[in-house]
Amino acid sequence: MSTSRRDFLQRTATVAGAAALAGTLPAAASATAASAAGATGSVAAPGTAGRSDAPPAPDRSLRILILGGTGFTGPFQVQYAVARGHHVTVFNRGRRQAELPASVVQLQGDRNEANGLAALEAAVARGERWDVVIDNPTTLPFWVRDAGRVLREATEQYVFISTISVYSDTSRVGMDETTSLAEYRGADPLTETMETFAANQGQLYGPLKAASEREAERWFPGRTTIIRPGLIVGPGDMTGRFTYWPVRMARGGDVLAPGTGHDPVQFIDARDLAEWTVRMVESRTFGTFNATGPAGRLSMAEMLGGIRAAFDGTTPTRLVWAPVDVLAEHRVRGWSDMPVWVAPTPANAGFSAVSIQRALDAGLTFRPLATTARDTVAWFESQPEDVRARVGGAFTAEREAAVVKAVAAGQ
To answer: Peptide bond before 294: cis, by omega within 30 degrees of 0?
Structure first.
């Protein structure tokens, strides 16, 4: 029986130094974690292949319209684009504060409202044109349709930020961009609203993203770039879906870790995604691309080893690996209580093993895992207490200690 990525997420939701850290891993995982932790303080081999810290300057300055621009990845796109000499306009509701460069033109509107695109319509009527439109926040197909009606003659390229949750089956390792997509089973995806989506988000997210991709191709035929990110992480992530691990490893002590250490994980730093997206429009690259990381296979043990290596090594840390049955007994859930990781089953064998070869061939690169970890902790520590409490994860120290004790009792 095939299992969609979104279905699976819904179900799974019910070191003193590098050498010392490696010594706490299951025997077969110790060598890989030690290697990962010792590679320039990061998981360098799989995580930074092909990275260039100074990409060649673009051939020309572009006019870029970003729909969104103030969320998680948007500000990184804006800052990178401006730094590379591009002229940026953002369109959003104006409800989020973001530190954007002074040169950025800001238009306001609500895509859920009947006249929500009036500011864009007025700009187009004045003769405004953009080389590219980057659509960041869209899940609802009617948002794409409405944007298409206004912008189809006003841009040469439309970039739609989708998700790898569009795939209908997570059982196959190495899923690429040709993998079948989740099917929308309602009457008409264009009639879905934020209210109907919120009422059934788990079932609708992937199918509506897939329908939005098709709507983008309809309005911008031959001019569409579809980017399907995996788990997006790093400084600024208000979901805590990765942040738990750097914060927890920095604190040290006995750290509960899920499974055997061998299970694969995938994620991408929001800055790597944002910067690569800008370089894709600079090169006028079209098509569909999975966008997660790192460049090669990364195990849970290697990820935790790489994160631990980001810190000074003065805080003793011991990983306590809990078998899946022990986690289940204590109602410790993959992805939510234990972020990034999912318990392995035949139905989700490909969940964290998505092929990104097309993106790598198109220039996707990754900063070191240690950089992501350090920057995430620095951002977390700069937040107010209420934000830290929300983002730090629902898995409390008391629950962790209870499971660590149970693991010790069973050994």
So the answer is: yes
